[in-house]
């Protein structure tokens, strides 16, 4: 069963997270299907713009902490090497690849957009948020310094990023707009319409011009050090796993079963 729906509307590929009963929480299957659809859209000459959206009340509750990820295990157990490789591919790696797809992309976001959900929207070129949207990365209170695609500083600026991380407070759509993270804030019932209107407007532009404009902006960010910063922050993120393991006996944000004899407490559950 796929948790991703895909359609092409004129020159716009619409990728939809479709696990609303779980608030579009991301297990391995959802992430792999999402990546496959990104690559499908990237390789389709008829597609000029990519839209990422979600069914249900919430865009995404982030990582699915209850569903084991088979790729995390090697010879029946989790090892540092297998876990690091899995997260490198599914979190940092997928997000980097989506960011560099040479076609404009728009994230349409509603409701909760929590932690790992930021890994999905921040690689997109534009973000449109419904008025009821909130953004949150609460993992500092669990001993981890932020989600894997650590673009907080680039998206919000240093001081707003620190406030978001230090307090685990929810950032409203209006606050995200004021910080420059969100392009537009729209009524919930107009989210899809306004997103598609913008996508179609962009699709009228020359494809090569769009690709080179995106490349120019992304390369400017790279020259400023974004890619190196993302990799460095990802490695720091892994220190957080070790801290969580030492404090609670459970490496928070790591998919898979609890160690033998361990029980996750209410405090450990985001």
From TrEMBL:
Belongs to the enoyl-CoA hydratase/isomerase family. It comes from Gordonia westfalica. Pfam families: ECH_1. This is Enoyl-CoA hydratase.
């Amino acid at each position: 069963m796929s948790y991703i729906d895909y359609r092409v509307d004129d020159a716009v590929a619409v990728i939809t997270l479709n696990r609303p009963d779980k608030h579009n929480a991301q297990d391995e299957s959802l992430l792999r299907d999402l990546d496959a659809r990104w690559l499908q859209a990237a390789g389709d000459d008829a597609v000029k713009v990519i839209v990422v959206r979600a069914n249900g009340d919430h865009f995404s509750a982030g990582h699915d902490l209850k569903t084991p990820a088979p790729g995390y295990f090697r010879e029946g157990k989790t090892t540092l090497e297998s876990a690091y490789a899995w997260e490198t591919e599914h979190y940092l790696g997928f997000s980097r690849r989506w960011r560099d797809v040479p076609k404009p992309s728009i994230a349409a976001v509603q409701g909760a957009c929590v932690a790992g959900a930021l890994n999905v929207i921040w690689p997109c070129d534009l973000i449109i948020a419904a008025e009821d949207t909130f953004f949150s990365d609460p993992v500092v209170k669990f001993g981890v310094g932020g989600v894997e695609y650590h673009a907080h500083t680039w998206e919000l600026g240093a001081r707003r990023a620190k406030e978001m991380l230090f307090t685990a407070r929810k950032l409203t759509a209006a606050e995200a707009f004021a910080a420059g993270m969100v392009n537009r804030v729209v009524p919930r019932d107009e989210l899809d319409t306004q997103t598609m209107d913008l996508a179609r407007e962009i699709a009228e532009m020359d494809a090569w011009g769009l690709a080179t404009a995106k490349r120019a902006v992304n390369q400017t960010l790279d020259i400023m050090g974004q890619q190196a910063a993302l990799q460095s922050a990802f490695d720091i993120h892994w220190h957080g796993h070790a801290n969580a393991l030492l404090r609670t006996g459970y490496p928070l944000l790591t998919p898979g079963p609890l160690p033998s004899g361990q029980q996750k407490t209410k405090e450990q559950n985001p």
